[in-house]
Amino acid sequence: MCVSESNVSLATPFGDVATCVTVNYGGGGSGKGKTDLATQVVQWAGSDSLIKDADLPTFKGGTVLYFPTVAAPITVSYNLSGVKDLQLSPDTLAGIFQAKITTWDDPAIKTDNPDATLPSTPITVVHRSDGSGTTNNFTNYLKAAAPSTWTLDAGDTVNWPTSTQAGNGNTGVAQAITGTTGAIGYVDLSDAVASKLTFASIKNKDGKFVAPTLEGATAALAGVDVKPNLTYSALNASGADAYPITAGTYIIVYAKQTNAGIAAALKGWINFVLTDGQSLAADANFASLPSSLQEKALAQLSQITTS
How far apart are CA 193 and CA 187, in angstroms? Predict the structure, then answer.
């Protein structure tokens, strides 16, 4: 049975092996994906943040399953002429994004970068305007790594200081950074590379400044605690080589499907993502799953059934 789902066609090699299944992806951020799944507008959602426990009763299709897919470093990208090897510790980063540190020559930034020549340029903080898993992971990282400094809490959206700027999606944040001298924001590695942004090295839990790379993300994934529902957090992970702002991404589906054709298509699509699709991750600047997590996710496919 051929199945068509969602909004905008996504050209992937999956179409070469499942010619009667069309996989479409509308985008719009993790918040929109979860909302559309809750109201059954779509059959699956892509998200790098989890559903809040309080929101689970609003999901009309019942029990949801999380399938981990890839992981991505979230860069701290900036636009500051003459400064190419910026280093930032968690407390400094928290101070910047709360607008407590407002110029690039602030003593806290100087402490992190003793050999850099830092200008007195004002800092412009750029964040997501949409409900975003990137925001969720970035703010949860600050909450975990700088608990005595970060006071804005964490989530898909937060109440940013009024002096900050907002951009829609990773591309919107990237554009705002590119167009604003002194700007700083958080952007997934894939979009940061595509936009040719400059990004900082972040001090990890082991006290080492680590750049956002796929190797750093893989190191962060190495020691994660995987929960029974296959969710995990690689934020502020231990390990000398771990990049501390590493976020997992999930495909979220309902366990019970009402259409056998759609159930089969979902299983085939997710199986492809977890197997052959993993080889495509690096080219898109995402880290593939550890084999142990991949195997658990593949075993969970049997839980997608028809009612």
Answer: 9
